[in-house]
Amino acid sequence: MEGATVLITLLVVALILIIALAVAVYEKSTNAVCTSRRRLEGKTVIVTGGTAGMGLEIATDLAHRGARVIIACPFEDEGVSARNKIIKETENEKVIFKLLDLASLESTRKFAADILQEENRLDILINNAGVLIPSDHLTKDGMHFIMQVNYYGAFLLTMLLLPLLKKTGKPGEPSRILTTASIMHMVGTVDIENANRINYWNKLRLYGNSKIYLVYFANELTKRLRGANVVINNVDPGAVGTRIFASLNEVACTPISLFCSLMFKTPWLGAQTALHAALDKSAGEVSGAYFKNCEMNSAVKRTNCAKTAKVIWEESVRLVKLTDEELNKCFL
What we know:
Elements: H1 2-29, E1 44-48, H2 53-64, E2 68-73, H3 76-90, E3 95-99, H4 105-118, E4 124-127, H5 145-168, E5 175-180, H6 203-224, E6 230-236, H7 253-263, H8 267-270, H9 272-279, E7 290-292, E8 295-297, H10 306-320, H11 324-331
Parallel strand pairs: 1-2, 1-4, 2-3, 4-5, 5-6, 6-7
Antiparallel strand pairs: 7-8
Helix pairs in contact: 2-3, 4-5, 5-6, 5-10, 5-11, 6-10
């Protein structure tokens, strides 16, 4: 009996390794690289989570192109270190770090208020920050931590900065908003009443929920921005070996991170689709699109449901406490 148990365990481990290798082969064989040579002097860009991993690669590339790059995260030491690293590598002194905790409506509002007061333009907003499955708890704002960081925080930040994005965009050169989606959106569920319940969802399923909400958001905002010089698109970086996977298991975080870094895309490769969507001319001519491997792809079909998108929108507005005045600034 004991021998049978050991055999089953070994077979399960072997199956996991085979699946991981298959994913690794697929990810590495479908890599695409942004080929745009566009320069960004005079442009301003925000990269949330731009202080580590894929976000740091995105921010560094945009700084190389001459942009004024604002990187944001909730950790001051990490942010200061990342800013210094980008400046040293790119020799671009126009790199700014600002604190932003997307798990806090207060912090998100403060960050947005500072941007609106200090910046006269915003050309690209890259909602890159996110968490995988670190914990199952509610924030002080009453939302699930994973949902607030990955979706509600990005929703609120985008809406608060939308007036500046609209002011900056012009015909033929719209401002761009990117949301970082994931293949996991395909297993996401829209359950408005239970969206923020704890001890209810499998955490991977909850991660998928946050990502499918982002896709619905892009579709709904596209409809509401019709005629404005602003586009919003989703980017799917694929499986990227960053420290986000360390949250899968606190005890085994180091070997898990090492395994994922070997098996999956490097952060630099993971950054390429976001850079393509931010820079490519044709990518600025569409809105509500889903990009993967530096080309237009398709999100799961059910995200085309306008009724569901509207319900998510209305609930999001309520939860993040957007006022009528703030909404009017976005769309009037």
